[in-house]
């Protein structure tokens, strides 16, 4: 049985919400984070889940952590959503890594020194509070980099450039990575500074930066199936079904 971290031990974290994606694969013609899911935008759902989790709340001598949302250049609508929720918005960059770097600069320029930082995809808008708690608790306990994961259930095959099968990969050693990903403040600043200007195709998330630009191990905690990433129309249907089930 998976144990849930004590919420009272996971406050004082800053959160970077990545919401600068175009949403091309959803096919709605608007930024993904603005797409409606059961009456609220994806970004609204994400911000509500973060607030409800309590990870930014003050704990002991730790002050409440700030939240920064990265938005597309020239955006006004997502910025308005962020403002209504009392959080900051900053224009994202050309890549996901650049967007996170912009948010970290916003935090650093404001003199922020949080207990740790959680980097969260707005598209994982239904992530349960327990996942936030598990990641934050692991960072608070001294882990420098932590990601939530799920076992891979599909059979995975390697293929060559012509599409011919090169054998089955042992899925017992594979995990699908979710967000929020958690980091110590100093480590996340260090690897982002080191990666500035890099366009390495191996940089797919913030844990990739840690693996490429530090010797700190990336640890894992259990994720949750509800923390799916809304990327395609089918994902949107699943998210709406999850919310409908929760209301019954």
From TrEMBL:
The record marks 25, 32 as: Transition state stabilizer. The record marks 171, 229 as: Positions MEP for the nucleophilic attack. The keyword Methyltransferase does not apply. It catalyses: 2-C-methyl-D-erythritol 4-phosphate + CTP + H(+) = 4-CDP-2-C-methyl-D-erythritol + diphosphate. It holds the Pfam family IspD. One of its GO terms (molecular function) is 2-C-methyl-D-erythritol 4-phosphate cytidylyltransferase activity. PROSITE patterns: ISPD. Pathway: Isoprenoid biosynthesis; isopentenyl diphosphate biosynthesis via DXP pathway; isopentenyl diphosphate from 1-deoxy-D-xylulose 5-phosphate: step 2/6. One of its GO terms (biological process) is isopentenyl diphosphate biosynthetic process, methylerythritol 4-phosphate pathway. Its EC number is 2.7.7.60. The keyword Nucleotidyltransferase applies. Keywords: Isoprene biosynthesis, Nucleotidyltransferase, Transferase. InterPro entries: IspD, IspD/TarI, IspD/TarI_cytidylyltransf_bact, ISPD_synthase_CS, Nucleotide-diphossugar_trans. It comes from the Bacteria. It is an enzyme of class 2 (transferase). Catalyzes the formation of 4-diphosphocytidyl-2-C-methyl-D-erythritol from CTP and 2-C-methyl-D-erythritol 4-phosphate (MEP). NCBIfam families: ispD. Belongs to the IspD/TarI cytidylyltransferase family. IspD subfamily. PANTHER family: 2-C-METHYL-D-ERYTHRITOL 4-PHOSPHATE CYTIDYLYLTRANSFERASE, CHLOROPLASTIC (PTHR32125:SF4). This is 2-C-methyl-D-erythritol 4-phosphate cytidylyltransferase. The lineage of its organism: Bacteria, Bacillati, Actinomycetota, Actinomycetes, Micrococcales.
């Amino acid at each position: 049985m998976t144990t849930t971290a004590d919420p009272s031990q996971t406050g004082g974290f800053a959160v970077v919400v990545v919401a600068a994606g175009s949403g091309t694969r959803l096919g709605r013609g608007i930024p993904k984070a603005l797409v409606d899911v059961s009456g609220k935008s994806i970004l609204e759902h994400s911000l509500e889940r973060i607030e409800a989790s309590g990870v930014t709340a003050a704990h002991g001598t730790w002050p409440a952590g700030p939240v920064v949302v990265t938005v597309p250049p020239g955006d006004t609508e997502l910025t308005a959503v962020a403002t209504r929720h009392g959080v900051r918005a900053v224009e994202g960059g050309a890549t996901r890594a650049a967007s996170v770097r912009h948010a970290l600069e916003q935090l650093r320029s404001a003199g922020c020194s949080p207990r740790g930082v959680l980097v969260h995809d707005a598209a994982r808008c239904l992530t349960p509070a327990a996942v936030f708690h598990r990641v934050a608790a692991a960072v608070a306990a001294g882990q420098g980099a932590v990601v939530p994961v799920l076992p891979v259930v599909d059979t995975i095959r390697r293929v060559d450039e012509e599409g011919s099968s090169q054998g089955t990969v042992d899925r017992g050693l594979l995990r699908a990575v979710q967000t929020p990903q958690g980091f110590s403040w100093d480590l996340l600043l260090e690897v982002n500074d080191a990666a500035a200007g890099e366009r390495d195709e191996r940089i797919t998330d913030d844990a990739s930066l840690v693996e490429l630009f530090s010797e700190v191990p990336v640890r894992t905690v259990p994720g949750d199936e509800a923390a799916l990433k809304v990327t395609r129309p089918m994902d949107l249907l699943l998210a709406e079904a999850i919310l409908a089930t929760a209301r019954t």
